[in-house]
Design a protein that fits this description.
The complex is a heterodimer. Chain A is of the alpha+beta class. Helix content of chain A is 51%, strand content 22%. In chain A, a hairpin with a 5-residue loop joins strand 12 and strand 13. The two termini of chain A are 18 Å apart. By secondary structure, chain B is an alpha+beta fold. Chain B has a four-stranded antiparallel β-sheet with strand order 3-4-2-5. A two-stranded parallel sheet of chain B has the order 1-6. In chain B, strand 3 and strand 4 form a beta hairpin. The chains are: A alpha+beta, B alpha+beta. Strand 20 of chain A pairs antiparallel with strand 5 of chain B, so a sheet runs across the interface.
Chain lengths: 517, 297
């Protein structure tokens, strides 16, 4: 056990040096790209915001079901089957079929080839579950239909969220899907998340609708209030133009009124629609509606055929900039709610780093002094193993660009405290063996061999805890499990390669001395 | 090697442990745990005031006027730093925090929000659930591991020792109304690992001694094993505690709860490896035959 081949010695040394080099690269800047890796600091250390957003899919579901009703009506009309009493209740489409057509309708709805109720081969499921109640059919989204709907709205939403966050221009944002209705947004280094939060909180559904004068619009009317809450207006439900047709929007100064406005330009289809509507609607008021609130309702003085226009609404430069940004990035498919927010200011992050490093140094020194006091020379060996253990641990975290959090630093300090355990087990065992065995080389050898299973058992149990924490934990706590887990592996390496190497050198040289340990 | 008759006091310490567990359970059942925003939902704000004359009651009054539900205010380290927690969590209003900050500045002067945690009810119940699952899973995994490595009597002893440590640690958190948050879950899991580690070291020695001495009864055999491993037990506990005390005193306010839970866990983990795990081997009548039989299988 105490014999090391040259090859092994060299590889241990090289391995240790390489990882120590990575560890140091956090503090010293190397020119070489490969070595200039850094540990990522978690949001709790560098400051920043963690936002968990949840999509409220209900509006999308309602919208899709309404569209489905129209589709069903059209589909069966083409098949010359008449259905009646269509209604929508609690996310269920209900309709009635006559006795003689009932089976026919049922066959269409359960047909795997037909597209009225799409069949997904990979899930072995239709888009809708069909149940019958008398002559009524009930259609609800099947489990997979709902999953697909949610996934597609999540995909759209994440794209819009990304555009909005990018437009604000924060430092390396991290935007990820979580499940099928959540989006995680990490914004490192962001001191004030309020602007992003209010940008993400808006659906930004822009529509242009005429203000109704006589309450007799063909599409019906709705009552909407003005953004500033000053008054209400009756607005025709017909949508002249929506935000989808916008190609650009930016804040500008209207030189005539000296007011900040948002000017927009439309795509070709939009420009045509807008031109037609404004030609027929001269003299009418056109309401500009954002998320169900009227921003302003200017009177059309002349047809606008250029495909560009301005939105006024008493904006400040900031609010005009934000509106332009929202319009450029597009509307969210559904509203987003912030269900979890964690924000740490950069100065608190720095304080945490300072406190973490201070306690690491103090903990480290205390352990080192204690080991020297207990074991003298062998304490030094254990300490050397401990130092290289620390370098290896930080080096590995750096190499994999792991994220270091405050609990992660605690994990490192804890590793320092627990890492000596393996060496202590070995040294204590050697002491016992020395009582019966006069030859120190044999005694040391036996000490290593006999303590091995215990050390493995003891470390595997901690490793199990770290693994479970890694898979179940979230955010900063995950950082703890990473340092704890990696710490165990580096501990075993430092004990079985570095400390044993040093021990064997020392013992072989001093084998004639009495009482080595 | 030390030669202390640990086994003479098995009974007394078992009674003591039972009392501690009973007291802990009574508190856990009737008083419950003081869940932080992670598990209860709500908002936590760590703030720093510029005006040193601000005190807890002034800050509490300002928050109480804002209709935020139950408000709790605590000093947090520095005399200008406070932790404010309240029930309300408003996910539909992105300006929620901004409004609080501006109202607060009006009443108590400039404040810096150093940390804001805002957890919705759905997320908090999910976090609680996954925390409980994580702890249960780790217990199950330990049980499985030790069951594979040892005989069932040993796994029972080790698991009971872990339950003892976790229940008493949580009991102390309940008695002193210390806050339970995500990092406490991490601490509990680490305690589970540490306690197991400590027990396994002694058990390994018990098993070795069962093979070595054919004529010593388990009652004395556990005592020999405890004594043989005692200096390791002490040294490792001391170095781990040194590291943890350093986190507790110098690691900043945020890690205080975590390090305290760990310190308690290490103390009880060390104690239970000696006084819970071993008496159970005695009570289950583990003998040389227990392992011989296993080895024949």
């Amino acid at each position: 056990m105490l014999y090391f081949s040259k090859l092994r010695i060299i590889s241990v040394i090289i391995f240790t040096i390489i990882f120590s080099y990575f560890a140091f690269s956090n503090f010293i800047k190397f020119d070489d790209k490969f070595f200039s890796k850094n540990i990522n600091l978690g949001l709790d250390l560098q400051g920043g915001s963690y936002l968990l957003l949840e999509i409220d899919n209900q509006p999308v579901i309602t919208q899709k079901l309404q569209a489905k009703i129209i589709e069903l009506k059209r589909y069966f009309k083409e098949k010359e089957i008449s259905l009646k009493n269509f209604s929508l209740k609690e996310n269920t489409i209900l309709f009635e079929a006559s006795d003689n057509e009932f089976e026919n309708v049922k066959n269409f709805l359960n047909d795997k080839e037909s597209d009225i109720n799409a069949y997904y081969q990979q899930y072995k499921s239709h888009e809708f579950d069909v149940s019958e109640n008398g002559n009524f059919f009930n259609l609800t989204y099947s489990r997979y239909g709902l999953v697909l709907l949610k996934n597609s709205s999540l995909d759209q939403a994440i794209e819009i969220v990304r555009r909005r966050v990018d437009e604000v221009g924060t430092n390396e944002p991290n935007i990820l899907k979580r499940g099928n209705d959540r989006i995680l947004v990490e914004l490192p280094g962001l001191d004030d998340p309020n602007r992003i939060k209010s940008l993400l909180g808006k659906t930004a559904n822009l529509t242009f609708q005429f203000i109704s004068q006589n309450n007799e619009e063909s599409f019906g009317t709705e009552k909407l209030s003005f953004e500033d809450g000053s008054r209400d207006a009756i607005v025709g439900k017909r949508i002249i133009l929506s935000g989808d047709n916008l190609v650009d929007a930016k804040p500008t100064m209207n030189t005539e009124t000296n007011e900040t406005v948002v000017s927009f330009s439309l795509d070709r289809v939009g420009a045509k629609k807008f031109g037609r509507a404004t030609s027929t609607g001269v003299g009418k008021q056109l309401a500009i509606v954002l998320d169900g609130k009227i921003i302003s309702a200017p009177t059309i003085r002349e047809p606008i055929i250029s495909g560009s226009g301005q939105i006024s609404g008493g904006f400040t430069f900031q609010s005009a900039t934000d509106l332009a940004l929202l319009l450029r990035s597009g509307a969210l498919p559904a509203p987003l709610n912030i269900i979890e927010e964690r924000t740490v200011g950069p100065d608190l992050g720095q304080d945490s780093i300072d406190a973490g490093i201070l306690s690491l140094i103090i903990g480290f020194l205390l352990v080192i002094l204690f080991m020297i006091y207990k074991y003298r020379t062998f304490g030094l060996i254990a300490n050397l193993a401990l130092v290289s253990n620390l370098f290896l641990l930080i080096g590995i975290l750096t190499l994999f660009e792991a994220t270091l959090t405050l609990p992660g630093i605690a994990g490192i300090i804890l590793t320092v405290g627990m890492a000596v355990d393996a060496n202590v087990l070995i040294f204590e065992r050697i002491k016992e063996e020395t009582k019966n065995e006069k030859n120190p080389i044999i005694a040391f050898d036996a000490g290593y061999t006999k303590s091995r299973t215990t050390i493995l058992d003891a470390n595997i149990t901690t490793l199990i805890a770290a693994f479970i924490l890694f898979f179940m934990g979230s955010g900063p706590v995950k950082g703890f499990s990473v340092t704890l887990g990696v710490g165990i592996l580096t501990t075993l390496f430092s004990v079985y390669f570095i400390a044993r190497l040093l021990t064997s050198f020392y013992v072989v040289r001093n084998k004639n001395k009495e009482q080595l340990l | 090697m030390a030669n202390i008759s640990f086994n003479k006091f098995y009974r007394q310490f078992n009674v003591l442990s039972l009392i501690l567990i009973a007291v802990s359970l009574v508190f856990l059942i009737f008083k419950g745990l003081n869940y932080g925003v992670d598990f209860k939902g709500g908002t936590l704000i760590e703030l720093r005031t510029t005006d040193k004359t601000n005190n807890i009651s002034l800050i509490r009054d300002s928050f109480n006027q804002m209709n935020l539900g139950d408000v709790s205010v605590k000093k947090f380290g520095n005399e200008t730093d406070f932790i404010v927690k309240f029930e309300k969590q408003n996910s539909n209003d992105p300006e929620f925090i901004k409004n609080i900050q501006s109202k607060l500045s009006n009443s108590i002067g400039d404040v810096d929000f150093r940390r804001v945690e805002n957890v919705g009810p759905k997320v908090s119940s999910e976090l609680l659930k996954s925390g409980i699952i994580a702890i249960s899973l780790s217990l199950a995994a330990m049980l499985l591991y030790i069951w594979i490595r040892f005989e069932w009597q040993f796994s029972l002893g080790a698991i009971l020792a872990i339950f003892h440590d976790v229940i008493i640690t949580l009991g102390i958190f309940s008695i002193f109304s210390l806050e339970i948050n995500l990092s406490i879950v991490a601490a509990v899991l680490t305690i589970v690992g540490y306690s197991m580690n400590d027990t396994v070291v002694i058990f390994d020695r018990v098993r070795e001694n069962l093979r070595k001495f054919s004529d010593i009864k388990i009652f004395d055999l556990t005592n020999i094993s405890i004594n043989e491993t005692l200096s390791r037990t002490i040294i490792t506990s001391v170095t781990t505690l040194l590291a943890l005390l350093s986190i507790y005193f110098f690691g900043g306010e945020i890690l205080k709860g975590f390090s305290l839970a760990m310190i308690l866990g290490v103390i009880f983990g060390t104690y239970s490896s000696i006084y819970i795990a071993n008496p159970i081997l005695v009570a289950l009548n583990v003998s040389q035959r227990t392992i011989v039989k296993e080895e024949k299988d």
